[in-house]
């Protein structure tokens, strides 16, 4: 069943990447109305109408025959799915509210999508994957880990095990809703989260790690600067700033230890043999 559902996955992803930039712009405009449920419904209806208009009239606005009009062959459901995703709130084990969007299809199969470091559920990779999956008939759920995006909690630099626990709360919620969770997909740091999850729990049979870092002791100096271990032991934290000197986030000694103590190889070896992994 899983193989059958993913036969057209690559094709659907290409469609998503080709067209969703327009939808993203319109979606951002409509989502600004979403503070009240009535406004949210209005925004969804408005966006659906605008998508129909774009689909029907945009091709006629091009007069150059050399332009490849992808819009004529795109599945309209791909666009509407992005606009009409259902907002879902899930409590993690600490009581923090995790905010996510459910892209619904005509099935009970579900793929859960996890974002990377300092990203959110609205990362274009997750948005496009969710739309492509829904277009292929598979529900998709993208959410913000605690401390990121709209979710409650404080941002932390390491936090790998806690994010795996957040993912557990999401899986448990949808399992209780009688969804068949067929895969967990994580991008970048989210890839580490799905691997950790699979090493701790054995209830999802397909794990997809997209660009997750294997050696977590590497890549730290590029963010924290030279002699980061000495500096963080001295002060207890390091404030990371951008090139203009603006504060971005704080790395505590505890969160750094969390990253350095997370063993990706050991976690991978702890995944059950019945689990299908991909990266």
Automatic annotation (TrEMBL):
Keywords (A to Z) from UniProt: Membrane, Transmembrane, Transmembrane helix
Residues in Serine aminopeptidase S33 domain copies: 107-272
Transmembrane segments: 42-62
Superkingdom of the organism of origin: Eukaryota
Coiled coil: none
Entry-linked InterPro entries: AB_hydrolase_fold (IPR029058), Hydrolase_4 (IPR022742)
The keyword Transmembrane is annotated on this UniProt entry: yes
PANTHER family noted in UniProt: ALPHA_BETA-HYDROLASES SUPERFAMILY PROTEIN, RE40534P-RELATED
Protein name: Serine aminopeptidase S33 domain-containing protein
Organism in which the protein naturally occurs: Aegilops tauschii subsp. strangulata
């Amino acid at each position: 069943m899983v193989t059958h559902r993913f036969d057209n996955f690559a094709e659907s992803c290409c469609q998503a990447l080709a067209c969703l930039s327009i939808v993203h712009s319109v979606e951002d405009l409509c989502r600004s109305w979403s503070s009240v449920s009535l406004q949210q419904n209005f925004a969804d209806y408005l966006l659906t109408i605008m998508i129909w208009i774009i689909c029907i009239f945009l091709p006629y606005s091009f007069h150059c025959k050399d332009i490849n009009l992808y819009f004529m062959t795109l599945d309209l459901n791909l666009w509407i799915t992005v606009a009409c995703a259902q907002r879902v709130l899930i409590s993690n084990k600490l009581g923090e509210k995790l905010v996510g969007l459910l892209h619904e299809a005509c099935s009970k199969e579900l793929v859960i999508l996890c974002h990377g470091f300092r990203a959110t559920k609205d990362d274009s990779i997750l948005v496009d994957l969710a739309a492509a999956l829904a277009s292929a008939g598979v529900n998709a759920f993208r959410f913000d880990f605690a401390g990121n995006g709209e979710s409650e909690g404080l941002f932390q630099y390491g936090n790998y095990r806690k994010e795996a626990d957040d993912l557990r709360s999401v899986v448990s919620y949808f399992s209780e809703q009688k969804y068949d969770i067929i895969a967990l997909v994580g991008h970048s740091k989210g890839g580490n989260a799905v691997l950790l999850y699979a090493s701790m729990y054995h209830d999802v049979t397909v794990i997809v790690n997209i660009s997750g870092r294997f050696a977590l002791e590497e890549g730290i100096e590029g963010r924290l600067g030279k002699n980061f271990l000495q500096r963080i032991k001295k002060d207890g934290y390091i404030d990371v700033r951008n090139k203009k000197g603006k504060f971005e986030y704080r790395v505590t000694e505890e969160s750094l230890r969390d990253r350095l103590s997370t063993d990706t190889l050991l976690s991978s070896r702890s995944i059950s043999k019945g689990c299908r992994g991909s990266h």
